[in-house]
Design goal:
Elements lengths: L7 H12 L3 E6 L7 E13 L2 E11 L8 E5 L4 E2 L5 E5 L7 E3 L4 E5 L1 H10 L2 E2 L12 H5 L6 E8 L10 E10 L5 E3 L11 E9 L2 E10 L6 E5 H9 L10 E4 L2
Antiparallel strand pairs: 1-2, 1-4, 2-3, 3-8, 4-6, 5-9, 6-16, 7-8, 10-11, 10-13, 11-12, 12-15, 13-14, 14-15
């Protein structure tokens, strides 16, 4: 029997409820290029009855991180107390990322972001892609060569070239003859690096929301860097000390 998938509206609502505050738009500062989406990921180190130990990262496509000066668009819902929208400018941007070999993915420990917020008198209020939401090896192995509905959470550039509003992009993914899982159409500018989700029906109007991985930049179809490989690569990284590289600039 072919696999079934949950209704589109149900999946979109679940993504918004689970991960609306997980994404952060960024771009090369003072330049009309290299716009992308990053997201928070909590890598599970240990789970005990007392709680989970995690190491937190920002994750995005490595190709979008190869420059020295970047700006993040800070959304009001990502901080407490809430502030008006503003841009955070980061120096030594390329040096802040760790490249995951062979995956075209880069990760950044979030200690520096936390330190910046503390100095400015606020704290981050984010959602994260957790171990339970990130795809397992079994989830990835179940994706075949037939297109299945998929959903990308990203920040489009918009008509004004600076809006960076969050959107759930509806599309499809499939595995090609080489075993690569890809998004089957070009991505809106600014959405590369964003997390990609599917929703598998569990019967009785229930479904499982799964974050397959992140969409890599390209002209389409766009490869998905899958979480089974990302999780393994991140597990091999040593914890990094916080860096203090933030400057704050209002719009």
């Amino acid at each position: 029997m072919p696999e079934t998938f949950a209704p589109q509206n149900d999946i979109v609502n679940a993504i918004v409820e689970s991960a609306a505050r997980a994404t952060l738009p960024f771009q090369q500062a003072n330049a009309d290029r290299n716009r992308g989406t990053a997201f928070w990921y909590n890598h599970l180190i240990e789970s005990t009855p007392e709680g989970d130990t995690v190491r937190q990262y920002l994750v995005t496509a490595e190709a979008l991180t190869r420059y020295d000066l970047a700006q993040w668009t800070l959304r009001a819902e990502l901080c407490e107390p809430a502030m008006s929208a503003e841009q955070l400018v980061m120096t030594d941007f390329a040096a802040g990322w760790t490249r995951l070999d062979g995956l075209a993915v880069a990760v950044m420990p979030t200690g520096g972001l936390d330190a910046h917020a503390e100095r400015k008198g606020w704290r981050w209020t984010t959602d994260e892609i957790t171990d339970g939401l990130a795809a397992s090896e079994q989830d990835i192995a179940a994706i075949g060569d037939s297109s299945i509905p998929a959903y990308l959470l990203g920040h489009d550039v918009g008509a004004e070239r600076g809006e960076r509003l969050q959107a759930v992009i509806v599309g499809a993914i499939a595995r090609d003859a080489d075993g690569v899982i890809s998004w089957g159409a070009p991505l809106p500018e600014g959405c590369a690096g964003g997390p990609v989700f599917i929703g598998r029906s569990l019967g009785d109007d229930r479904f499982q929301l799964v974050c397959v991985g992140l969409a890599l930049p390209g002209d389409g179809p766009n490869e998905i860097a899958t979480f089974d490989r990302i999780r393994t690569a991140v597990a091999g990284l040593a914890p990094a000390a916080p860096r203090r590289w933030w400057q704050r600039r209002r719009r």
